[in-house]
Write a structure and sequence with these properties.
single chain; 3 domains; six-stranded antiparallel beta sheet; three-stranded antiparallel beta sheet
């Protein structure tokens, strides 16, 4: 069950996601309170959250990403077209559009989750923040979930007549079977501060009754199983790194803290810009017509309204030597702005994305592009993490098929799928060099045309590649025969 360590992770990932969603004013304000004295912070005004390196980093690496252009799904079984084809269940569930956000959050947060369900015959893909989930890990495979605890709100109706519904927090608990327990799906809630099984209040079974769903051969068995009878969790966890651990919440932590530091510097720079609009003047030994008021610091100040071009005469106070001292804007806005830009560029370079192009553009004070990430860098990153996303996507579509088959009586295949993601086009020179290398390797028998087809169409199975090449050869032969016939 959830523990103190998980609570710390949850709070950190909730703050991280608020930064990624650019809704982190409260997080930045709490950060400022830790490092800036209250009397100074009062003069700074509202926190400036407009400069957000973490969100920019995740957005650029996920644009267009794997899902900006819908991936191409394939399966040799024609029945799969209703699931993965145009207008199929995946498309109607918003797979391509939702997965754009999943990829962005996984890059910025380290992990993100998708929950699968079927509602009234339609596939539903729910995006769930990792801060709302506790995961039980397999003792033998620390990065494989065997249980999911999802914190969610439900509507509770008491048995008292006329009472209004109440919103309560519960845990939806999905657990695979182990040596000591069967697979189960339950809803847990709190009774006087203690966890208790509330399935009989909230979890509706197929026959209309309410209660837990447990085991394989029970009257109300665990419902999430493949055709073979093997149970699965109707969840998938997308990761940006494969660390061998369940969670990767330390990923991008430096960029997380750096973004809050950038917000600190930007807030101070904005206040300095306001202060630089005029000078502060001290006057003593003079009696002038003034308006008294209380300043922002709580101390009384006296002001003199001045019209440009006017001359104001003041009386000298007896026994004093009158004097006036002006203190000009005591900040260097160019230096402050340059420091903030340089700090932001350093954050990118520490992530391995500070190439020469980014450094050159960051040095230009008018470009505002210290967060620029080149196509080459995005291409390299995309190729690096693509196997992680492909593995999870293939599991997701297999689970979707199993859920739809169980609910709708369909017979979609659970296996045999391949997926090809959009890739950022290579430069003409890169394409030329790659073609020449492949032609040289084919000519010397180092690789086959099937391997070349697979490298040009990542995610394509060997069987699909062979079938595609046969079709190409047959079509080419047909065209050649027609041309020969016409020539004769």
């Amino acid at each position: 069950m959830p523990n103190q360590i998980e609570d710390r992770r949850s709070r950190h990932q909730a703050a991280r996601l608020s930064i990624l969603r650019e809704d982190h004013e409260d997080v930045l304000a709490a950060w400022l309170e830790q490092y800036v004295a209250p009397e100074i912070l009062e003069n700074w005004g509202e926190p400036d959250s407009t400069n957000n390196p973490l969100a920019a980093y995740a957005r650029q690496l996920s644009t267009p990403g794997r899902y900006g252009k819908p991936p191409k799904w394939r399966n040799l079984d024609e029945l799969a077209d209703e699931l993965i084809g145009p207008g199929g269940h995946l498309e109607r569930a918003g797979y391509s559009t939702k997965m754009q956000m999943v990829e962005r959050y996984a890059i910025g947060c380290g992990d993100y989750l998708v929950r699968l369900d079927v509602h009234r015959g339609r596939l539903v893909l729910g995006l769930v923040d990792p801060s709302e989930v506790y995961v039980e890990a397999s003792p033998d495979e620390p990065d494989r979930p065997i249980g999911i605890w999802w914190r969610r709100c439900r509507e509770s109706i008491s048995g008292i007549e006329g009472s209004a519904p109440e919103i309560v927090w519960t845990w939806d608990v999905y657990q695979l079977g182990t040596r000591t327990r069967p697979a189960s799906y339950r809803v847990l809630g709190y009774d006087r501060g203690e966890l208790a099984d509330h399935s009989e209040r909230y979890l509706e079974r197929a026959d209309g009754s309410f209660g837990p769903l447990v085991g394989k051969d029970a009257e109300h068995p665990y419902p999430f199983t493949y055709a073979s009878g093997a149970p699965f969790l109707p969840w998938e966890m997308y990761r940006s790194v494969d660390s061998g651990r369940m969670w990767n919440w330390s990923e991008c932590r430096g960029l997380h803290r750096g973004t809050l530091n950038v917000g600190t510097y930007s807030t101070y720079t904005s206040r300095a810009a306001l202060d630089a609009t005029g000078s502060t003047t001290f006057a003593w030994g003079l009696a002038c017509p003034t308006d008294a008021r209380i300043g922002s610091t709580g101390a009384p100040v006296q002001t003199v309204p001045i019209t440009p071009g006017s001359i104001m005469f003041c009386d000298v106070i007896d026994g004093t030597q009158p004097n006036v001292k002006s203190i000009g804007p005591g900040v260097n806005l160019d230096a402050l702005s340059a420091f903030t830009r340089g700090y932001t560029a350093d954050l990118q370079r520490q992530r391995g994305l500070g190439g020469a192009d980014a450094q050159k553009q960051a040095a230009n004070p008018t470009s505002g592009s210290a967060l620029y990430i080149s196509d080459r860098q995005r291409q390299e990153y995309s190729e690096q993490v693509e196997p992680l996303f492909r593995l999870v996507d293939l599991r997701l579509v297999g689970k979707a098929a199993a859920l739809l088959n169980a609910q709708n009586g369909t017979a979609y295949p659970e296996r045999g799928y391949t997926i090809t993601y959009y890739r950022i086009p290579k430069s003409p020179q890169q394409e030329k060099e790659e073609r020449e290398t492949q032609d040289w390797e084919i000519g010397r028998g180092f690789i086959s045309r099937v391997e070349v087809y697979q490298s040009r169409n990542p995610g394509t199975s060997r069987a699909d590649a062979v079938a595609a090449l046969k079709q190409i050869a047959a079509e080419n032969e047909e065209i050649t025969n027609k041309e020969r016939t016409n020539a004769e």
